[in-house]
Design a protein that fits this description.
The chain has 583 residues and is an alpha/beta fold. It has three domains: 84-365, Rossmann fold, CATH 3.40.50; 390-507, Up-down Bundle (Four Helix Bundle (Hemerythrin (Met), subunit A)), CATH 1.20.120.640; 521-581, no CATH class. It has helices at residues 3-9, 19-23, 34-39, 122-140, 156-165, 169-186, 202-214, 290-300, 314-328, 360-366, 369-377, 389-415, 427-445, 450-455, 458-469, 471-474, 479-496, 504-519, 523-538, 542-554, 574-582; strands at 87-90, 95-98, 106-111, 144-149, 218-221, 224-227, 264-269, 284-286, 303-310, 333-340, 343-345, 348-349, 385-386, 557-562, 565-570. A four-stranded parallel sheet has the order 4-3-9-10, with helices on both faces. The chain has a four-stranded antiparallel sheet with strand order 5-6-7-8, with helices on one face. A three-stranded mixed sheet has the order 12-11-13, covered by helices on one side. Helix 12 (389-415) packs antiparallel against helix 17 (479-496). The longest helix is centred in the last third of the chain and has 27 residues, at 389-415.
Amino acid sequence: MGTASLKRCCLLFSSPISPFFAARYRRQLPAPDFSSLILASKRLKYPSFSRTVSSSPRASSSQSVFCGVANGTTPIPAETKPYPELYLFNTMTKEKELFRPRVPGRVGMYVCGVTTYDLSHIGHARVYVTFDVLYRFLKHQKYDVRYVRNFTDVDDKIIARANELGEDPLSLSSRYCDEFHSDMAYLHCLPPSVEPRVSNHMNQIIDMIKQILDNGCAYIIDGDVYFSVDKFPAYGRLSGRKLEDNRAGERVAVDSRKQNPADFALWKSAKDGEPYWESPWGPGRPGWHIECSAMSAAYLGHSFDIHGGGMDLVFPHHENEIAQSCAACSKSNIGYWVHNGFVTVNEEKMSKSLKNFFTIREVIELYHPLALRFFLIGTHYRSPINYSMTQLDIASDRLYYIYQTICDCEETLHQHHGNDLKDNLPQDTLQCIQKLHLDFENSMSDDLHTPVALASISEPLRIINDLLHTRKGRKQELRIESLSAMVKEIKNLLGILGLAPSNYSEVLQQLRERALRRVGLTEDELLLKIDERTTARKNKQYDKSDEIRKGLAAIGITLMDSHTGTTWKPTIPHDVHEHASAM
C-alpha cells in the first residue's frame, strides 16, 4: 500500500450530530470534592433518561481516525433496556459520546497492562480499578463483554532488573505477573476474559510487522525495523501533538540511522545477554508498541469498541498503536479511546521513574484494599487524584459506616427470619429505592460518575439507620420489609462498583485491625485503656476518663458506651476530621 493510498485510508470522517446527543443534552455538573462527599451529603439530581429503540446510526467519533470506508450504520438492539444511555468521554474527539458497540449487545475492550518487573503501585491500581468498574457496569447493562488486558513480559526494564538480580528475564516477569494477580484480587478486580503475554505472541507480532513492511510504512536497518511516521499523515490526532514537536530523546529513542527522529522501533535486533526470538530480519525482540496492536487484533479483531489505559499512554504508546494498526490493516478502527487521570503525590504524577510511588502492598498493609478502591473511585476517573493518608482515612471511615449499617440491618433481618413478610412496601420506601436506582444509573451512565453514584446511597443508609436505631423508626409500619428491600438494592449497587465483599462482618474486623495497626496498638492494649477508663468512671475520675477518650479519638478510635458496656470503632483521626471539614 503506497503513501497516497494510506492517506486515503486515514481521512477523518465527520458525522452529523447524533439525535441521541441532542435528546440527552444537559448541564454538566463538576465532580464533587471527595471530602465533601464523605462529610456532607450533597444531593445531586440527574434527570432520568431511558434507553430507547431507534434506527439512527451508531453514534461515532466525529473525528476518529478511521482507516477504511466511512462509518456506516450499525443496527440498534431490538429490545428496550431499562437503563439510561451510556456516555463515555472519547480522548480522540475530546468530548463525551453516546456509547454504541459495533455489534449490538457485545463489547470488545482492550486495556494496556503492566510491564512486570516490580510490584504494582497505586497508579496502576487506579487504571485497573477504573476499567474494572467499566467492565462491571457494561455487564450490568447486559452487554456480553470480551475484556482483554495484556502483560508486557518482554521489555528493556525487565531485562535490566533481571540482570541486577541475576535472574532469567522471563522467570522474573512471570513472578511479577503472579504478584499482579494477587494485587488485583485484593482490590476486587474481576479477571479479564483474556490476559495475553508478549512472550506467547511472537508469531502474531512478527506477522503484523511483515504486513507493515509490505505496505511500505516501515524500513529495516541492520536487523532493526522502524515505523516511518512520515508515512502516516494522521499521526498525532489522538494526542494533539504535531510531528515537529516529537524531538529525539524525549520519549523516543535517539538513533542517527532513523529517517525521522520520531520513528519508533517495531523490532529490535538481539544484543548479548538478552532474550531473543528468530524473525525474517534476524534474531531480536519486539519494540514496546507493536505488542498491543498485535494482541488486540488477535483477540478482538482490527476494529473493536473500547481501548483504555492511563493518560500517560496517550503519547507515545497509543498514538503509535493507531499508526501501526492502520498501517497493517486499512480497516483498523477503535470506537472509543478511554483514559484515566493520574494519581499524584504533592501534585506530581506518581511513577516508578520519579521514585515517588507507593506500591499497592505498602498501602494495603495499613488500609483495607476495599478502602483503597473506595478512595480511587471517590474521584471521577478522568480527574487527577492526590494520594494522601488523610483521604485514605476518610475513605476507610466511610466504608466502615456503610458496612456496619449493612451488618446491623442483616442482623435485624436474621432475628426476624421465618416471619411472614408482606409483599407491599410503604410509599416512601418505594420512592427512596426508585430514586436510589435512578440516581445511581444516571450518574454511572454519565461517563462513570462514580463519586455521585457513591453519594446516592447516603440517604438510603440514613433511613436504614433510622429504622434500626430510632424509636420512631422501630415503630414504622412494614419496617422489616423496608429494611430488606433497601439493603438488597444497596448491596446490588455496591456490587456494580466492586465494593461488595462476600462477608461484611469479616471486612469490618479487618478494617478494625488495620486501624489499630496505623496507630501502633494491639487490640489487647486498646482493651486495657478501655478498662482503665471504665475504672476511672466508676471512681468518678471524670477528667481522667475524658482524657483517655479524647486521646483515643485523636488517633482515630471512638469509644461507644451503652448499658452492656463500652465498645470501639475506627473513625477519622481528630486532626484529619478538622482538616477535611475545613476544605
